[in-house]
Amino acid sequence: MNRLIVGFVAVLFSCFAVAGDESAREKMIQNGIKVCQAKGFATVGERDKCVAEFTAKANERYPARGSDAYAKKHYGGMSKAQAEATLIELQKEWEGAKKGGYFSARRTGVVTKKAVAAEGWWIQVNVLGVRESQDDPWFMECKGFQTANIVRRCPLGKGGAE
User: Fold this and answer.
1) How many domains is the chain partitioned into structurally?
2) Other CB atoms within 10 Å distance of the CB of residue 55
């Protein structure tokens, strides 16, 4: 129970930090666009290259939700118990997230199902050692049923017990 509470508190604090990171990243990109427009490049391609450099710097400093950089920063170094607690919280967030599309993914503060699922799969692959598949990442690998080609899935919250 304590592990679930610790995981919940960690996700809660990271959510507050994420809101600030997203707005800071968006502001950095907007400032880059203004700087690049003010430089008066001869071609659109040169201006786009300039904007891409600012965008890359912003994404490096403030990684976007669902990216490998974000997942590594927020979920790297977790224990298996912390990973399971975090997966439970991410599943709750995933259930309430918008399906999203091309433009909603670019709005500040909008978290899509795809981004949350990507974070869940990062935890599954990099912390729990499960191979990624086409299904959702909201499971624990069952204890004692590891084979070379099949992942037996048990529900979250039971530590891998059926």
Assistant:
1) 1
2) 16
